[in-house]
Design a protein that fits this description.
By secondary structure, the chain is mainly alpha-helical. The chain contains seven helices and no strands.
């Protein structure tokens, strides 16, 4: 189990070497590359599938509801999603030896940060909560998330636990 978390952590901590106008596209391409890799770990594929779905949703909803928003805004949200997922996997890996109840509380902390910080206030709950309601899914987050706010919420809560 520890090796699995280390593999997840390594996959999520790839460095992004792009300028601000290319971050969204770069993160999507990285996620797609992992998904398309037949040798990638299934859990890492699952996490990247969520990431790609969230990025596609974000791009689509921004065009619909915020057509005047800038590419920089989309890039900031994409980078916050990337960092949220990285901190999530690092936190799980660092606490893999903790009791299951503690690990569950950590997962719930990330789930709550995602759910409690909507970006679009989308009423299509079946769609935006498709990962959130899956009990067997490691990425139980809402697609309708303001990732900048969710990242700050997680950071604040994790600092309280130290």
């Amino acid at each position: 189990m520890k090796k699995l978390f280390l593999a997840i952590m390594m996959a999520c901590t790839c460095t992004l070497q792009s300028n601000a106008q290319e971050i969204y596209t770069e993160i999507k391409a990285m996620a797609q590359e992992v998904i398309d890799n037949p040798q990638a770990n299934p859990i890492i594929k699952q996490m990247n599938t969520f990431k790609l779905t969230a990025l596609n949703y974000m791009g689509m909803k921004m065009r619909e509801t915020m057509p005047d928003s800038t590419a920089a805004f989309l890039d900031k949200e994409a980078l916050a999603l990337y960092n949220f997922m990285t901190i999530y996997t690092q936190t799980l890996a660092e606490n893999s030896q903790q009791p299951a109840a503690y690990q569950t509380k950590l997962i719930e902390l990330f789930m709550d940060a995602s759910y409690s910080n909507p970006l679009f206030n989308d009423t299509d709950k079946d769609y935006v909560l498709q990962y959130f309601v899956k009990g067997d899914c490691l990425t139980r987050f809402s697609l309708d998330t303001d990732w900048l706010r969710a990242l700050k919420a997680v950071d604040t809560e994790l600092k309280k636990r130290q």
